[in-house]
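fyi for ur records
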Amino acid sequence: MTYKDGRVAVVTGGGQGIGKGIALRLARDGMRVVIADIDGEAAAETAAELGPQVMGLTLDVADEAAVTELMDMIGGRFGRLDALVTCAGIAAPVGAPVERLELDDWNRVLAVNLTGTFLCCKHAVTLLRTCQGSIVTIASTRALQSEPDTLAYSASKGGIVALTHALAVSLGPEIRVNCISPGWIAVDDWRKSTRRSPPALSAGDHAQHPAGRVGRPEDVAALAAYLISAEAGFVTGQNFVVDGGMTRKMIYAE
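which gave:
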């Protein structure tokens, strides 16, 4: 899909990783992209890499006043918003047993991953409704299955899946809302320059996937680009798993 009408997209968490991949794809499709990331250095660096149609801003998605300010700025500067992709998220703490998981840590993960998604959607609705735009939320296969001691992250991502269909029913038909749940996506070479490195992947890592390889940010970006396009006009309220088939593979201990 190529856009030549000045369409605008916001990608939260777009400074690094999957969010950066999505921002790159939408910019290449011709959209003006606003990257909003808590790591302002990463947001600015990515915007500089992607070109003049991309703007990088610092944003904590859990801060409602900051989210409101962002959407007001977009309305004032561009006068429209066609797509919102909520990719901002944190995983820590990982490996904390439930009996030692601090409430502050639990609350912070839920605040960024789930409440942050809600806040961005809430304050983008007016602009999106005017353009009959769309929302793509980013969850995880952890919404559907878990490793031990990933409670806060898994709960937050499961909440995003449920929030997605609730929003789709609430905002349709003017705004479509869909979710992508990525599996194992290698993002080492999609980080900011001070943290960037080639992915250290083994043949066994790739072999775990029926698709034959570990995922790349481009895999998620391609689906996000489709979901915000007019070609997906009959698609809303859905959760799409992008994991190379890994969650469909039965594993038996040998």
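The chain has a mean pLDDT of 95. thats all i got for now
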